[in-house]
Amino acid sequence: MNALTRSLSFFWHSSIGRKILVALTGLVFIGFLAGHLTGNLLIFAGREEFNDYALFLHTAAHGGLVWVARIGLLASLVIHVLATISLVRENRAAREPYAHKAVIQASRSGRLMIWSGLTIFAFVIYHLLHFTFRVGNNYGSYVDQEFLAKTQLVRPDAWRMVIEGFSWGPAVLFYTIALTLLCSHLHHGFGSAFQTLGYRSKKARAITDTGGKIFAFAIWAGFLSIPMAIYFFHFGR
Hints:
Layout: H1 3-13, H2 15-40, H3 47-59, H4 64-94, H5 101-132, H6 145-151, H7 158-165, H8 169-196, H9 202-233
């Protein structure tokens, strides 16, 4: 075992190391969610703008950039989940039967974070199967006919894919539940991430707590506005 491997092993087996990994991977998701929401909201600008955005994502760096992002995000998610589960199990094993009520309450909060995190993990897998790998649908055959007529070039109709995907009630329901859990997770995790990374003062805690609430609500409202507009108000249909 070389020095690098020993260092990584020591870092992982240290509770502080795993907390730092949870915080850093959490910040990765915070940045991703902000960028992803910004792009997704282009659907309200219309088919051309949204399909331009989708085409850019899939052709940047000859198609390699999107896969680097996917692999990086999936790796971050796996690390985040495994490290969190490990920390919760470690804390549970160390807890004495006569632990103070505040500790018991903290463990309940941790259990809720674990279950919401696992649900979010399942949601990510479903989201990838639904829109990326297009399992159980024929979205891959959708062609932007307006773009084809103007340019004689073929590009996927991502706009139609999203409209039809959220025209199905069970998908909208699952997305609503998963996004609500995601934003509950964000609300609790936002401040914890910054606290783990050293922002421990009372003033910093107040700022991160407020920022976490605002960010979580913005993500929840922004992402849900798309399926709600499509399913209930027939946007794009």
